[in-house]
């Protein structure tokens, strides 16, 4: 597999060195992590503090903020067509009642323009009085004018019986007026002829009856009914012929969105199918809008990352020097923050951050709870700065009675969070709140959940509480910071087997948005041999640490689409091809099993 061109990095005079091809950290002034009676020897940049909405400026991705992926429903745009007496008018009434669309009928528009005495109306009247068809350009102008009104833009529109000719359809296409769906009601000719010939008009109320299918309510109404001049069998047949010619002419324009329905059924049955199609169309447009929004966000992220790639300094060195320098800690805070923002912007909701630098590795005696708390604060304040309400959660005491307790790594963390310095703008208690892991701590106003090192303990499992919480959170992002969800022995000293597969499957459902692990000889924690890093949405990058007279540097060995296992890492360090058979033993066995 080809490796990146920039494999070596130069050493900086200040003792820090970097190597990797992704996004650079940004450094600024620092402020301390304060507790009531003590001070941690770690720091936090001012740009992570909550800033006022009017004056904030971000030294990170300028103009890029974490946003919800929810998309407002776009108003429907519908065309409906059908031969005379196909039931089109009835379906239009039902559609308007249920979906609230603006009904646009060319007949109604023509009559309204004529009665209003407008310029278009006067021209229309001249053609009608002369017994001529109204020119397409006049009808199209009326239709476009009506569709451009605010109510049609906000509610959506239902275009009834228009366009009727290919030239009219082409005119609408040129004006970028196109429906999301084109519904055609199909009814056999003999049924249509029967409907038209048997149709009667009440000249007093304008109501339409049918002598067989919909007779008048009283003899009085029946006596005054008339037959419309165009409802004779001869004229109906001519109109059907004209309709079919026109329908065939415009079908090619709307073939990809055309839905043909059997109109020779009860109106309620037909409308049930019409309604189902419109609901599906609404939902598909929402999904398309979401995808377009996510794609646009991805494009922005890619451009930003690409533009800054050449200036990025990469992984800091001297990571075995304890305590870590302020620059090292802030590098990782910023690196994790950017990866998490990218993942949430792209719609990911079940995320985990895994990082085991010495100060964040509970298996090392230099582990510092303050560094973990500071990382959590960086994430929480950044999301709060974007107007999100953040719930920071720490698991409570597990077990009952004499067996009650919690993992040593988390002891006192809730108090630390409560007494931390959360900035000068009242973030804690407004945009940020502190809770426990469980469904009861999921409130409706919460937007993002950050869970601090959730982990199982001997005899107790956090998975059930965690699952209940994510179920209650729904589509809202849940970020696990350094989770430890592997199964541990029960209080009896043996592994808990009941439901183990389900627990492991649930734990694996969280996607890494950030991963960083130092690589050592097996059984040791010195010297550092290399590092494995992944920052969403990029690949896993494997680095080898090299000592030179001028100082240490990192050389990138390989990249992986998925987290590599120990064998793959050993092969990369030995310089083997991915396809080359690996020996059963070797000098680089120190890496086996670390992942």
TrEMBL record:
NCBIfam families: adk
GO molecular function, one term: ATP binding
Enzyme class: transferase
Catalytic reactions on record: AMP + ATP = 2 ADP
Protein family (similarity comment): Belongs to the adenylate kinase family.
Species the sequence originates in: Stephania cephalantha
This protein's UniProt keywords: ATP-binding, Chloroplast, Kinase, Nucleotide-binding, Plastid, Transferase
Pfam families tied to this protein: ADK, DUF1995
Protein name stated in the entry: adenylate kinase
Gene3D superfamilies: P-loop containing nucleotide triphosphate hydrolases
Localisation per UniProt entry: Plastid, Chloroplast
CDD domains per UniProt: ADK
